Amino acid sequence: MTDGATPRMLTLGEIARALDARLSGDASAAVCGVDHPARARADQVALAVEPGALKHLAATKARVAVVSEDAAPEALAGLAGHVAVKRARVALSVLTRLFQPAPAQGPGVHPQAFVDPSAAVDATASVGALAYVGPRARIGARSQVLPQATVGADAVLGQDCLVHSGVRIGDRVRIGDRVVLHANACLGADGFSFVTPEPGSAEMPLSANHSKVTARNDTILKIHSLGTVVIEDDVEIGACSTVDRATLGETVVKRSAKIDNLVQIAHNCVVGENCLIAGQVGLSGSVRLGDRVVLGGQAGVGDHLKIGDDAVIGGAAAVGQDVPAETIFIGYPAGPVPEKLQENMNLRRLPRLLREMMDFGKRLKMLERRLASSGGG
Amino acid sequence: MTDGATPRMLTLGEIARALDARLSGDASAAVCGVDHPARARADQVALAVEPGALKHLAATKARVAVVSEDAAPEALAGLAGHVAVKRARVALSVLTRLFQPAPAQGPGVHPQAFVDPSAAVDATASVGALAYVGPRARIGARSQVLPQATVGADAVLGQDCLVHSGVRIGDRVRIGDRVVLHANACLGADGFSFVTPEPGSAEMPLSANHSKVTARNDTILKIHSLGTVVIEDDVEIGACSTVDRATLGETVVKRSAKIDNLVQIAHNCVVGENCLIAGQVGLSGSVRLGDRVVLGGQAGVGDHLKIGDDAVIGGAAAVGQDVPAETIFIGYPAGPVPEKLQENMNLRRLPRLLREMMDFGKRLKMLERRLASSGGG
Amino acid sequence: MTDGATPRMLTLGEIARALDARLSGDASAAVCGVDHPARARADQVALAVEPGALKHLAATKARVAVVSEDAAPEALAGLAGHVAVKRARVALSVLTRLFQPAPAQGPGVHPQAFVDPSAAVDATASVGALAYVGPRARIGARSQVLPQATVGADAVLGQDCLVHSGVRIGDRVRIGDRVVLHANACLGADGFSFVTPEPGSAEMPLSANHSKVTARNDTILKIHSLGTVVIEDDVEIGACSTVDRATLGETVVKRSAKIDNLVQIAHNCVVGENCLIAGQVGLSGSVRLGDRVVLGGQAGVGDHLKIGDDAVIGGAAAVGQDVPAETIFIGYPAGPVPEKLQENMNLRRLPRLLREMMDFGKRLKMLERRLASSGGG
User: Fold this and answer.
1) Do strands A335-336 and A328-330 pair parallel, antiparallel, or not at all (unpaired)?
2) For C277-301, what is the mean pLDDT?
3) Which CATH class for the A10-98 domain?
């Protein structure tokens, strides 16, 4: 990591080692950043691994490049050196990690922060200006709480975490190590859980015979959230995303799950290890995601449903049933891929079907007339 | 309510009275919390009202329990006492209210808050560290403004409100009593209201004959929001939800309406009393919800539409028309339940329909051949 | 603009000139606000341009009004003066601009703000209480950073901007002139970009033959965001909306684009000039919107897709393909209007189709019987 003011310098040799990839040319060429060949400066390494990027190498200002293994030698002629990699996006991961800028905040508690005297902030951690750390909260080694973030009473933040500005970590929420929380994310709001003294309108079964609402929600009682939120190690949660606390027990986001912006994780959900949840996804109360589940943007999952390990849910899918492990669900309402593709194909056949029906009708009528006039039968 | 540090102690007798339910066994047994029997400690009451929870009573550490009326006596054998209730979720509401922890913030204005000298903060209210209270704002008795929240100029906050960290109450917004606003909710942003000097592309009628956009939105004029937001008594609004101010007049959320996280209530909307609005719902401009309307997660309602009293809108429903009172709408586009269930059933019949069409075609052709060869007609 | 405490006074003559419209009656009548005739006070101008508002003029307390050109003279009889306008919503734009209240914050840096010594804040700009301005950040003339907002390290904010409370402007983000950012909007969070060492489950092609997930995302590598966000002049971004930084290069929102609340603009997107993006819209990574594109609320666009100039996307549309310029797309999955309207019409014909099929089946069987019994053929 480099800090915001002085970027890190690396040689092409060091880059090749980090990428575990083959180097050609000047191993000592030093660079302080990476960019697309069309934008890269002379002190940066050009990254030309995507199709279409290679042709920009001819005019790049960069002296060195990272290219894909199958790059044609003539495209590399003008370079002082290059590194050839196998999997483009993995190389992108390594290179962007090498050159990522760090937050411009040193260790220690900023004089304009508020840290409750009963809180325990590790000496190597940092708490930024105008941040709040509540009673009995604990912050681990090297964790950074950026300006104006909140760590609630009795909350626990592990080591090497990065908590961006405006993040709200509610009272008693527990967070593991190396967790990244992006700006204005909220962990530990109350679950949305209400009940009516008599069975309410939201509890009605959906059927053709129950098309009229007969219940009246004249009184609404809150089910308070006594539980908490647990975020395990290596989780990342996006900007303005919300993870509600459990009614009793814990809402859990397991190890290494990655959650994008504006995602809603309702009370009592369990998000499995290594899940990937894209922007604006919504999980209703008590949803359980297995491990390695992928949810596309804006997908929604109804309450108490279970999504099995390794399942993939398409973008904007509306999931109203359990999804088995290793299965891909898409569409509205969501279903298995073969079924939904067939459904779409059937729909596309409808115009022809309607034309054929008209044709059949005419032919039937003609046959009937002929039989009638022939007195057949 | 109990504070974060020292939990409240209650006897089983007190719990039975609060639940208005039948007590058996030791009325004097004291507990300081409630949890599922599998997690409950010796100093907590086990809550075993959901199916499946009863069997955990055998091994629970708790000495007393709250169970459903139909619990088998043998399941309760090991307990020092128990209370039997009728409606499980109502009991959950009462029990969680009894034991909910309060924010760890006493009354008064924190020295690191900013409160404008012209603001009026009740002596029993509290304003947390790094919170902002603008000119001429008023905060009522016992209301709590938690750290880093904002109460804008001329805003009014009633009594017994709870305003979580990062909430933004815009200038002139008026809020009633006992309102709960969760972290980072925003009340009073400008409405999204723009106009083009000539009729713009968004004003075009949707029809098969108007498939090409002919307007060009070369200039966009803002319609400024002079109005405000009014939140009535007992409303609850979730984390990162937004309620925009009206162009003129007021956007209103009426008494006891409950709104989940990441919900958008656009300018000039009216949300009726006791409405329940789940996560990520979007109401476009000038939508009017009657009283006791329920909207499932991710549902959306087009602008200027009216949803009648007691209507229920399913999760992810895309509402493009008015919804009559007491009616359930589901689906995309949303429609009444019987119609949408029939639609789905028809779709499921399509594969058979397509097979029958092929069969009919063959039989028709055969009939035509036989008639032709017989010279019929 | 007027400030929150003392509203601006304008004469009817000045209003007529601002509206470029015909005045009748007392040009010197002075007002300090505008409202619907049913609510307008004696010191306000009644705005009666929408159908249905005219009839409220008879009982209005206002002495002057703005009406549509075709207003019947008898409706205006009781007024001291009126101005007649052509396009109602354009008049609304002008009038609301004239009377909009300004934030109650004068120029200068509030003593309870934190401004890094290396930051450059123009003398005419204002930084509110508890706001944070990071190292080397620059804030232009007359820009207002409201209480508790964040301007990150090396960020640039142009002139005449309005940054509401809780906005997070990330490190190195660049913002033009006259930009309005509503409460808790986040610019510059990391892009949601991850990769697995071997091809992962999210990279699988969707086909009927690939219905089972075979990849296991056992390891997830982050692609860090080295790029930034660029917001051009006259852009407005809604409350709790998020614009992520690019992996390399820039995520760009071009001149005069308007973005509503809770919108997600992912990494590497380009939003064209004058685009109008309604609430809860989601753009996946690397989406490119042309100029003047309109997106209805809750619409979603899949990654790397291109939406052409002047295209209009309906509310809740799920866009899974490129959209040509000047084309209207609606529905799930989204398609051109004529196609989707036809599709809906075909679906509505299904019940009749199913009845006809039964009828055809009977008639076929009868024909077959008659031919069989007649020994035809």
Assistant:
1) antiparallel
2) 98
3) alpha beta
Domain definitions of chain B by residue range: 10-98, 344-377
Chain B contact probe: residue of C261, C327, C332 with most B CBs at under 10 A: C261
Mean pLDDT (chain C) is 93
Q: What is the pLDDT of residues C68-113, one digit of tens each?
A: 998 988 889 889 999 999 988 899 999 999 999 888 788 999 999 9
Interface confidence, given as ipTM, is 0.95
Which helix (H) or strand (E) segment holds residue C88: the answer is: helix C88-99
Q: What is the CA radius of gyration of chain B?
A: 29
Question: What 3-state DSSP class applies to B351?
Answer: helix
Q: What is the pLDDT of residues A190-234, one digit of tens each?
A: 999 999 988 888 777 666 666 789 899 999 999 999 999 999 999
Q: What is the pLDDT of residue B377?
A: 43
What is the rounded CA–CA span in Å between residue B110 and residue B131? 8
Cβ neighbours for B360, distance < 8 A, ≥ 6 positions apart: A360, C357, C360, C361, C364
Minimal Cβ distance to C368: which of B114, B217, B363: B363
> At CA A251, angle to CA A128 and CA A199, rounded to 5?
130
Residue whose token pair is 């606000």: C33
Angle at A189 between CA A184 and CA A192, to 5 degrees: 125
Residue-wise pLDDT for B136-184, tens only, equals 999 999 999 999 999 999 999 999 999 999 999 999 999 999 999 999 9
Dihedral sign for Cα C61, C62, C67, C72, please: positive
How many Å apart are CA C162 and CA C147, to the nearest integer?
11
Residue A164: closest CA among A131, A118, A198: A131
Locate C150 and state its tokens. Answer: 């964040």
Q: Which residues of B263-279 are buried (b: 16+ CB within 10 A; e: fewer)?
A: bbbbbbbbbbbbbbbbb
Phi and psi (nearest 5°) for C251?
-85, 130
Contacts of C among chains (3+ CB pairs under 8 A): A, B
Beta carbons of A192 and A266 less than 8 angstroms apart: yes
- Cα–Cα dist A189/B163, whole Å: 12
- Name the nearest CA neighbour of B77 among B87, B67, B86: B67
**Catalytic: A110?**
no
How far are the Cα atoms of B187, B328, C180 from residue C297, in angstroms, in the given order?
19, 22, 20
Residue type, C22: R
Tell whether the model's pLDDT for residue B206 goes beyond 70.
no
Residue among B182, B153, B245, B166 at smallest CA distance from C166: B166
* Token representation of residue B196: 């083009």
Largest CA distance in chain C: 105
**What amino acid is encoded at B14 in this protein?**
E
Q: What is the pLDDT of residues B102-132, one digit of tens each?
A: 887 889 999 999 999 999 999 999 999 999 9
Give alpha helix (H) positions in chain B.
12-19, 88-99, 337-373
Lowest mean pLDDT among A203-207, B18-22, C10-14: A203-207
Q: Residue B143 — left, alpha, or beta (φ > 0 → left; ψ -120 to 50 → alpha)?
A: beta
C residues 125-164 lying closer than 8 A (beta carbon) to B:
128-130, 147-148, 164
**Taking CB atoms and an 8 Å limit, are A208 and B342 in contact across chains?**
yes
Phi-psi region of C75 (alpha: psi -120 to 50; beta: other; left: phi over 0): alpha
A101 near C154, Cβ under 8 Å?
no
